[in-house]
Amino acid sequence: MIELRSVSKEFPGGRKALDDVSLTFAAGTVTAILGPSGAGKSTLLRCINGLETPTAGGITVNGIEVSPRKLREIRREVGMVFQHFNLVPRLNALTNVLTGSLSRVPMLLSLFYAFPRDEIRRAEHHLASVGLAEHAWQRVDRLSGGQQQRVAIARCLLQQPKVILADEPVASLDPETSREVMQILVRAATENQMALVVNLHQVDIALEFCDRIVGLRHGQVVIDDLAENLTSEKLQSLYGQS
Amino acid sequence: MERGIPPRPRSWLPLWLFGILLLCGAIIWKLQLTQFNVQEAGQDFSEYVSRYKSPSFQNLPEYLGLMFQTVAIALWGSSIALVVAMSGCVLAARNLSPHPAVYRITREIFSFLRAVPDLAFAVLFIMSFGIGPQAGVCAISLHGIGFLGKSFAESLERVSPQTYQGLESVGAHRWQTLVYAGFPSIQQDIVGATLYTFDRNVRMAAVLGIVGAGGIGVPLKEAVDLFRYSDAFAILIVILGTLLATEFMSDSIRRRLA
User: Fold this and answer.
1) Measured between alpha carbons, how far is A100 from A80 in angstroms, rounded to an integer?
2) Is the Cα torsion angle B144, B145, B150, B154 positive or negative in sign?
3) Of chain A residues 130-159, which have a CB less than 8 A from chain B?
4) Mean pLDDT, rounded, of chain A
5) Could you tell me the residue range of the domain that residue A7 belongs to?
6) Residue ranges per structural domain of chain B
7) Which end of chain A has fewer beta carbons closer than 10 Å to its terminal beta carbon, N or C?
8) Which residues of chain B neighbour A75 with C-beta distances below 8 Å?
9) Min CA distance, A111 vs chain B (Å)?
10) Which residue of A lies nearest to B175 if distances are taken between CA atoms?
11) pLDDT tens digits in sequence order for chain B, 258 residues long
12) Is the pLDDT of residue A171 over 70?
């Protein structure tokens, strides 16, 4: 589903954020990317959806080669979940979810906030599936952090991507809400046969919810194993002094 | 070794204040403002005001008609300004503009329109297509386009990049990003600035009549020129009442939308 072939990314100034990374992520699997700050986790995700261009190597998403010319085509296939939700604060929850369909609905009508009936029904369905049906008409800046992230997940589902990339999706939520949100995210991805890649910095959450764990350090893959073969102690070594 | 706090950065405020004070002194000295006798001026003023004794409302229907025309000029001017500014502000917002050159050019156009006083525009239009409310509408909308365009563009720049990023991540088109992330986020600024412009435009439209751009200003200038103080007084009361009414209205709209 996602394939990275010897991807390297060097920033101007010589800092290497990714160093010869080769990984594949299959449909219906949940992978956590762990590693200390600056290990290249965010850069990895940003390369996959084309926000950054690798300096070496290639990436394909669902058979499409990621390149600056195919940005919108790629983004249609790739759903993003962000740390700060990146919703439109002044729009209500349902409209925020509906924006997930913008790349495929009639352009002119969409500029007047008119959506096809089946898209609205689908949006309502996804909003209900993340447990927010009764908040549909509420402005999202009136919702709690956990609720906002669930709206963002529903938007992502309406987009119907093949892949979901989540960049620290629970980093600004409290522990209990984090578990709820992770549960919803993982269930949504596996039910819809999407590949889910999550950047995390909580080792316990990664072990609890993800099938596979990739450890990054100085831009290199140092751990790549099934979660059941790993322990919290083994993963802590990722964060130790180098 | 422990390092101490570095010395406080130097503040230039005292120097500025000193400079401004010096300038004020120079102006007083140069214009010989000291000769301006406050008492005498007060007497002159109260003598003049005392001529406005009793307003004469004989021509009230005519005044109300012209006042309505003034409000209509302001409304048309504001509406045209709103539509043009909303379409143009996108080009003048640094984060949304298709090209830096387009950004610079539209910004400069807005700044220019805003910098030219409506009165100057009105004189220009009266000279080109004659006395009447059309000149007033054109003058007011040109100035309004500058003011609103620049203010909307600045609001769009203040919207968090994360909001735009969320829309871009679902593969939204540029225009969709604007309609779903940009405008809803600055909705309050749009309403506030537009109501402010309308308020201001009613006042401006009243004044513009004095140079011949239609509305209530026309009979006001006539009455003052012909020393018909009771008529002038009545017109002033009509203007004041209207201004209070429009201000009350826009305040209540703003409060409801906050």
Assistant:
1) 10
2) positive
3) 152, 155-156, 159
4) 89
5) 2-239
6) 61-257
7) C
8) 168-171
9) 6
10) A111
11) 567 888 888 888 999 999 999 998 888 777 766 566 677 888 888 888 888 888 888 888 888 999 999 999 999 999 999 999 999 999 999 988 889 999 999 999 999 999 998 888 888 888 888 888 888 899 999 999 999 999 999 999 999 999 998 998 888 888 899 999 999 999 989 999 999 999 999 999 988 888 887 888 888 888 889 888 888 899 999 999 999 999 999 889 888 876
12) yes
Interface test with B, best of A66, A70, A82, A88 (most B CBs within 10 A): A88
Q: What's the pLDDT score for residue B80?
A: 95
Nearest-CA residue of chain A relative to B164? A86
Q: Which of A90, A111, A152 comes nearest B179 by C-beta?
A: A111
Q: Is A242's pLDDT higher than 60? A: no
Chain A touched by B173 (CB under 8 Å): yes
CATH number of the domain at A69, please.
3.40.50.300
- In angstroms, what separates the C-alpha of A157 from chain B's closest C-alpha? 10
Number of domains in chain A: 1
Q: Which two tokens stand for residue B36?
A: 């301006």
pLDDT at A63 over 80: yes
- In the stretch 151-170 of chain B, residues with CB closer than 8 A to chain A read 162-163, 165-170
Give the full edge-to-edge strand order of the sheet including A220-226: A78-81, A163-167, A195-199, A30-34, A212-217, A220-226
* Residue B182 CA neighbour count, 13 Å, CB half: 26
Strand order in the sheet with A56-61: A16-25, A2-10, A56-61, A64-65
Six-digit token pair at B258?
Answer: 């906050």
With CA atoms as reference, the chain B residue closest to A152 would be B166
Q: Among A42, A82, A99, A113, pick the best mutation site for testing chain B contact (most B Cβ within 10 A).
A: A99
Contact B180 A102 (CB under 8 A): yes
Question: How many CB pairs lie under 8 A apart between chains A and B?
Answer: 77
- How many Å from the N-terminal Cα to the C-terminal Cα in chain B? 54
Whose CA is closest to B175, among A110, A75, A97?
A: A110
The interface predicted TM-score of the complex, written ipTM, equals 0.85
The domain covering B61-257 belongs, at the CATH homologous superfamily level, to: MetI-like (1.10.3720.10)
- Residues 6 or more apart whose Cβ sits within 8 Å of residue A215: A34, A35, A221, A222, A223, A224, A235, A238
> How close does chain B come to A67, measured CA to CA in Å?
15
Residue of A nearest to B187 (CA): A90
* C-alpha distances in Å from residue A46, one per residue of A52, A210, B89: 5, 20, 30
